[in-house]
Write a structure and sequence with these properties.
2 copies of one chain form a homodimer.
Chain A: E1 12-17, E2 22-29, H1 33-46, H2 53-69, H3 71-82, H4 86-109, E3 115-118, E4 129-135, E5 138-142, H5 156-164, E6 168-171, H6 177-193, E7 201-204, H7 209-215, E8 219-225, H8 228-240, E9 247-250, E10 257-259, H9 261-266, H10 268-280, E11 292-296, H11 300-312, H12 321-335, E12 341-344, E13 347-348, E14 356-357, E15 359-364, E16 380-386, H13 389-398, E17 402-408, H14 416-425, E18 429-434, E19 472-478, E20 499-501
Parallel strand pairs in A: 3-20, 5-6, 5-8, 6-7, 8-9, 10-11, 10-17, 11-16, 15-16, 17-18
Antiparallel strand pairs in A: 1-2, 3-4, 4-19, 12-15, 13-14
């Protein structure tokens, strides 16, 4: 990460400010194949230092402490590169340190080890068997554009991988290289402060470092948050390796919402305002943004409420010029499709070079084409007007997998039809939301952040306690004397981990 | 599975007897693309019938009952097609029905649902979240040659998938089509007897049905037991689908054994006899057969004991002519490699056309070549003589992933060196065996049957209780009123499943 001999020949990495659109100072150089190899080898060499759970817990807490102590600097760096604003980034940093501390607790408790002990049973001819989970090895993490902290260098993938005992090499997102450098330095300093090798966390820059990293023989698993196109390419590389590795990718999600006829009639203002708030939150740059909203045909009041509320919503600059261009082109392209009506025209905003205003489009269910079912990052949503249950069902049948699916019901719609509707949404998503909004992903044991492809490339979650399971594999010890067993598998259970016995 | 219009144009499937090598009666025809499509659609349509856990438990028990009631017929069919012998097949059937009943119990208990409930916490801004696991959809199962029951139609993959609530379509193994037909009929009759659609289990024949099945849009996951070549091809198809699906494949394993110098000196006769028994068991046709044994150079007594015991071992016919030819060619090829010594020559046996006698090869660690590290199915093992710890370490460094790794120690070898040796084996296998043998895979909660690639293409187990996890995905319900929640997520917990609350 320091400048090094030979780095002059590699391309510089600049920090850009979305409020101006101008590239700022150079903060790094792109990582070449040599840098990737060196980072992965250094991480692999650091793995034994993470063998002890108490050490991992201490590292996670020390990282959280250093991030919190440097909050002002971290938030300023992230704001300068993402324009997400100090309040949002303050919340995101709090979430990030909370995640690190939660995983520290989880590591100490040891339930994730899933210890099972079956003592020898000569009657069944069964030998003594003791199983626990062990870390997979070096984890490659691809940082997300839209969460410079919570889904980037010190984010959930990194926290859960370190908690599992896996060293991490992060591929920084080009939208926030300076924030990435700063956060990586803080985590590495936290390691060094505990006498651990700094290389428990490595950092790489540059597009080409991504495939190189996924191909590296010592990389054992990948965590990815990003686009369908980029994620799918890396997924395919992971699967095509001589030794394929798990690829846990979060790729894309429309997050459909269904509003029943009675809900639209009963709560037009509330639902309209809620939807506008949800799809414009963070300038529509959330993976759980509701991008497709099925509303009854003729729900003019609801449509009006959405438009009125969205028109008043404060949206800021998008994350980078490419994203802004893709948003404006994406909205324009959708608006030009047959049958699509523009209820609120998205466009450039004059508050900042990369700022945009939100858009609301509408189309009849019968005219919904495949192109309208692709995620459009940014503050836009598509209202799809259905005339009856068959049309609603037909649209749901066209959808791919999603992180979330939401339904808005009338207050007394709790009967078989509502149950059936929820059952219809179940195959489409990893989280079902009733009378609420998908934005806001709580970090909690009962959270699942994932869903059928392309929402996720695996059945795992990237948020919440069970995210740690992605970086572990079980190992059984057969007929192994206590002196050779990990302490977690001893009958005396000196570390007090949960054990399922016989 | 009944003969049907158009079936004349498809190739017949014959049942063959390994004791004669002759093809017997025709039992089916190969499945074409239409049959694959029909089977998968029928299975998908049957999925709702498996929604209720009590129904699934009843189905698993009814299937076990019918298999047990037809034991004589099932064992005779399997023996006629595999020549594995009545005692072994009686044991395998018992294991198969035990697996079905174990999963029935597990389904009823509901711990696998991994229910977590986080009640709303307004102070944290957290909505009510309730998570449980739900079935993935239709599971494709590829039956194994070497276990016509326990890893085939009514085997662990099928039992765990049905337990999870997933209908199953099995691709029969060509070595036992009649057994497959019989077992499928019994399971389907068990379903019909409970008023369930028979198509909760479908059966296909023929090589081409395999890729077709993995490509089918309605197939949601795959369970495979077989060769590296076949498994890798199907894995790659699963990963390349428009919607990639989980592929849980068990592909191949050398199952290395390390005998320390002191163990060889102390227990030569015991280890020699144990090894011979293990690698010739079931004619060496187990996925956990110890195929590579690291012994100290100069352990002549141990080598002699292995050879003497192996020469006396009773091995039967191999499963099919192709396998026998591959075994004989494989042994010959290895024996001809530089530095390889034949201690006991494998060859054809005169007891039956497909019968062979066991072989023992030996080579110095320094002369171990990559070709010698490929699994050779059948009763042969390779002794690798290491001169010191460095040579031992060098050989271990050349190994791919395995289902098991075994170590034989002297009685008082329990110190840091033994711990380090076990630590060295840990990255290489999913099960570590001390002073025992890997053959014999107990069905128990603490069992793990899987391992780093190519032992397995995933981090899951295909044996034991946690095998059910392969066919499930988590779903969170947010802010969902009790009337719309599955009973398992109710505060009142009417079904008494384990719930982790807050």
């Amino acid at each position: 990460m320091q400048s090094e001999p030979g780095s002059e020949s590699r391309r510089p990495v600049h920090s850009s400010d979305p409020r101006t659109g101008e590239p700022g100072v150079q903060v790094a150089v792109e990582s070449g194949p040599e840098q990737v190899d060196r980072a992965v080898r250094a991480a692999a060499a650091a793995a034994p230092a993470l063998a002890d759970r108490a050490v991992r817990a201490a590292l996670l807490r020390a990282a959280a402490d250093r991030l919190a102590a440097a909050a002002e600097e971290v938030i300023a760096a992230a704001d300068a590169e993402t324009a997400l604003g100090v309040p949002r980034l303050t919340g995101e940093l709090a979430r990030t340190t909370y995640q690190l501390r939660s995983f520290a607790e989880q590591v100490e408790q040891g339930a994730f080890l899933d210890v099972a002990i079956d003592r020898a049973d000569p009657a069944l001819g069964r030998p003594d068997l003791r199983r626990m989970k062990v870390p997979l090895g070096v984890v490659a993490v691809f940082a997300a554009s839209n969460f410079p902290l919570a889904f980037s260098v010190p984010g959930g993938d990194t926290a859960s991988a370190l908690a599992a005992g896996c060293p991490v090499v992060v591929k920084a997102h080009p939208d926030h290289p300076a924030t990435s450098e700063l956060c990586a330095r803080l985590v590495r300093e936290a390691a060094a402060g505990l006498g651990l090798p700094e290389d428990v966390l490595g950092l790489l820059h540059g597009f080409d470092a991504g495939p190189e990293l996924v191909r590296h023989p010592l990389v054992a698993a990948v965590g990815f948050t990003g686009s369908v196109r980029g994620g799918r390419a890396l997924h395919d590389i992971a699967a095509a390796r001589p030794r394929p590795i798990p690829f846990h990718g979060e790729l894309g999600s429309l997050n459909p919402v269904v509003v029943t006829e009675r809900a639209a009639a009963e709560r037009a203002a509330e639902i309209g305002a809620g939807l506008a708030g949800s799809f414009t939150l963070g300038s529509g740059q959330f993976c759980v943004k509701p991008g497709l909203v099925l509303i009854p045909a003729g729900a003019g009041e609801l449509e009006q409420e959405v438009v009125t509320a969205a028109a008043k919503a404060a949206t800021g600059p998008l994350l980078d010029p490419r994203m802004r261009a893709a948003f404006l082109a994406g909205v324009q392209d959708r608006a030009a499709r047959p049958g699509v009506q523009t209820l609120l025209a998205a466009g450039p905003a004059d508050t900042a070079p990369l700022a945009v205003t939100p858009g609301v489009l509408a189309v009849a269910a019968a005219e919904l084409s495949e192109e309208l079912l692709e995620e459009c990052f940014g503050p836009v949503t598509l209202l799809v007007r259905y005339r009856d249950a068959d049309e609603l069902d037909g649209v749901l049948g066209q959808l791919s997998g999603n992180l979330t699916a939401t339904v808005h019901l009338a207050e007394d719609e709790r009967g078989p039809e509502a149950v059936a509707l929820l059952g219809r949404l179940l195959p489409l998503a990893g989280r079902l939301v009733v009378d609420g909004w998908p934005t806001g992903v709580a970090v909690a044991p009962a959270m699942h952040h994932g869903g059928p492809y392309p929402a996720s490339t695996s059945t795992s979650t990237s948020v919440g306690a069970t995210a740690i399971e992605r970086w572990l594999r079980p190992v059984s010890y057969q007929n192994t004397p206590p002196e050779l067993l990990p302490a977690e598998l001893h009958d005396t259970n000196p570390l007090g981990v949960p054990q399922r016995i016989n």
